[in-house]
Amino acid sequence: MFVHKMGSNVRKSLGFILHTYLKCHIFALVLIFLSFFFVLSTTAAIGFLTVSSAVTMSAPFFLGRVIDTIYTSASDAETMTASLTSLCIMLAGVFLCGGACNAARVYLMQSSGQQIVRNLRASIFSSILRQEVAFFDKNRTGELINRLSADTAVVGRSITDNLSDGLRAVAQAAAGVSMMFYVSPSLASFVLLIVPPMAGLAVIYGRYLRSISKRTQDALAQATQLAEERISNMRTVRAFGKELSEVDKYTQKTDHVLNLAKKEAVMRAGFFGVTGLSGNMMILSVLYKGGLLMASQHMTVGELSSFLMYTFWVGISIAGLSSFYSELMKGFGAGARLWELLDRKPEFPLNEGKILPADQLKGQLEFCDVSFAYPTRKEAPIFQNLNLLVPAGSIMAVVGTSGSGKSSMVSLLLRLYDPDAGVITIDGHDVRDLNPYWLRSQIGTVSQEPVLFSCSIRENIAYGATDPDAVTTEDIYRAAKVANAYDFIQMFPKGFDTVVGEKGVLLSFFCEIVSFNHICCFFPKNPKILLLDEATSALDAENEFLVQEALERLMEGRTVVIIAHRLSTIKNADAVAVLDQRRIAECGQPTELLGNRQGLFRKLMEKQAFLQEEQQRALI
Ligand SMILES: Nc1ncnc2c1ncn2[C@@H]1O[C@H](COP(=O)(O)OP(=O)(O)OP(=O)(O)O)[C@@H](O)[C@H]1O
């Protein structure tokens, strides 16, 4: 039974190692991984391992000979000195060679290991970035970051340094046992009776460790998730004075991790305690039985010493094997989630599908009988049989109460999600047939959220370019001028080289970020279609004017969908669509819709005008 279980575990372990290596071959930077250097270094490491293990395991045998030399020629001092000196010089040379091989093995395995971790990280990151947007609704940022950093490190360690040490332990244990049988078969059979129960214990321990390791990695991912969310929303936490309660929540999560780690520690302590005890019992039994064999002239003192040293080595190798097994099981636990990520095929292709000739694209948009619910909230439909036509080159304003689905329309047009029923077309082509890369390159978007990376303003502006390195300073200045943002950027001491913090927090005014954001989104795509999501809602009057002016310039000759509440943004629209009850309830020219006293648009605008009046009165 145990043998069977051991066999299946060994098979699983080998499968796991092979899987890991193969995954890296498939997903990682294949060229580097399969490069001559890697194959060569791994082969060399195995060669060094063989030599260093052979040296280590031959040492007890020769040391036994040294002892016998001392013991048998003790009466003749001259002979003893001569043979002892030559034996010791020879052995010192062999040991030196073994030490050097061992050092080379460790270096080669470590550097190959780092290469594997790097490739694994690159593959996981690439796989994450290829996933559809709905995947990110279901999987939180902190958790994914944890997989990318902590889990890859655990898997990397378990199949590199650990594997190298494990192979060494296997080689030494095998050589040690063989030498024990060579030196004294009867003593070896007696001592090795302890191995089967130890193997059974290792199987039980390995299973437990694998499951607890998976639970620990999951708990750690949850803690990282919480920390990531709170740190990235620090202003909200501070505004609500929630620092202490958030610390409590985080502490609870880390306590959970700690509890699991304690359970693992108890198990480890028990296992290592038992293995240590068995090692000592083995030594004791060798001394006892070996002493008896010496007394009956069946063994020399040198042979008993050699045997004792082999027993030590086998004991150390078994301890090394159990730690190898522990790390491997931890790797199993952490690896399970990584393979899920690596194996996951994105629901939408990233760069496949029809590409229309650029000069033929007119930009007519149409929603035909579209029904949609977010994959994470299938029970709450956002649209049901929604129809809307935006003629090419026209400006369509979409209005509706908060949560009516305005931004969701933008997400569908960008094909961040697919509708559950109906079709969305561009110039009559179903967006699902079009190449998503190409589609998005034809659409300029401005969202409510400022989208800036923590690098210089110059780099942020060039981000949209196909080849950011080819963007000249003149291009960047021109784009900033088009967006009326050149002057405020130049006001920073470092101008366009100012480094923007996370979410652009180093830029002093939010409005500046929003205007700045506009440039980033339009430059340098020159898109046929613009989607503006409440573009000016957070601006003060002066900046709104600047941005509005820039936008009007940019809207010329393009199909534009504006999502805005303000009359000022809507007044330039050719038509207004009012979203209500999961469909377009009204659609027509703004003046026409305002004329309908019972209409939804009129009511929305009245409500807004009333709110503005209230605000003004409050200020007076
Ligand atoms: N990724 C998502 N997953 C699940 N539900 C979502 C997601 N994004 C938005 N929703 C929900 O879909 C509904 C419509 O959201 P949407 O942002 O499209 O409305 P909106 O009209 O643009 O609202 P607002 O004017 O407040 O921006 C809301 O109830 C929102 O909570």
UniProtKB/TrEMBL annotation:
It holds the Pfam family ABC_membrane. GO terms for molecular function: ABC-type oligopeptide transporter activity; ATP binding; ATP hydrolysis activity. It is found in: Membrane. It is a multi-pass membrane protein. One of its GO terms (cellular component) is mitochondrial inner membrane. Residues 365-606 form the ABC transporter domain. Its main location: membrane. Keywords: ATP-binding, Membrane, Mitochondrion, Mitochondrion inner membrane, Nucleotide-binding, Transit peptide, Transmembrane, Transmembrane helix. Residues 44-330 form the ABC transmembrane type-1 domain. Coiled coil: none annotated. The chain crosses the membrane at residues 21-39, 45-63, 84-108, 187-205, 269-288, 308-328. It comes from the Eukaryota. Signal peptide: none annotated. InterPro entries: AAA+_ATPase, ABC1_TM_dom, ABC1_TM_sf, ABC_transporter-like_ATP-bd, P-loop_NTPase, Type_1_exporter. GO terms for biological process: oligopeptide export from mitochondrion. This is ATP binding cassette subfamily B member 10. It comes from Oreochromis niloticus. The lineage of its organism: Eukaryota, Metazoa, Chordata, Craniata, Vertebrata.
